[in-house]
Amino acid sequence: MALKLYYHPLSSYCWKVLIALYENGTPFEPVPVDLQDATGREAFYKLWPIGKFPVLRDETRDWMIPESSIIIEYLAEHHPGQIDLVAGRDTDRARQIRMRDRFFDLYVHQNMQKVVGDVLRPEGRKDPFGVEQAKAQIHTAYGMLDGVMATNKWAMGNAFTMADCAAAPALFYAARVLPNTDHKNVAAYLERLKARPSFARVLKEAEPYFHMFPVKD
Fold first, then answer.
1. Range 167-176 burial, b when 16+ CB lie within 10 A, else e
2. What is the pLDDT of residue 1?
């Protein structure tokens, strides 16, 4: 198999890439990595010393590609499918897609991870002020997004794009740490994302690992 994806089924950024792969039915070899296993961890760190998921390996071109957004753009250029998730030929639209992608990653996803990460910190080393700030920014992002989704089916209108690949894991996990009950358009958008076959497949594959998520309902 030309493409190998090193990932974990519970990893939110891995979900983002899996959605893109499933949207276009792109053939790839999934390579699950358990960082709790010494052998698996050592092998993965040799591939990518930063040690973060996901990482794509293109054996045909002898390329290694980290970072979810970069992976999706790489796939769009070198392994394109019927769905153009990046709109590379339309530079203005592509820029807007990247902006929305960054919006979900930086203002929803990253803040969600701050809240989750604080749960895992030992007593005496937690950061309640940082968690408060992170939740406030998620709430602000919800408010901004609620206005956008009042008229949009997907993040960029009627077409599913890389921005939606970013939105799905960000909003799914953010809803676990800060429910979006006050933002009906955001909640409806998340339900559409969950019903999308590509994301539904990702969620189904992740089900056996949900008990590992540290924030409980």
1. bbbbbbbbbb
2. 64
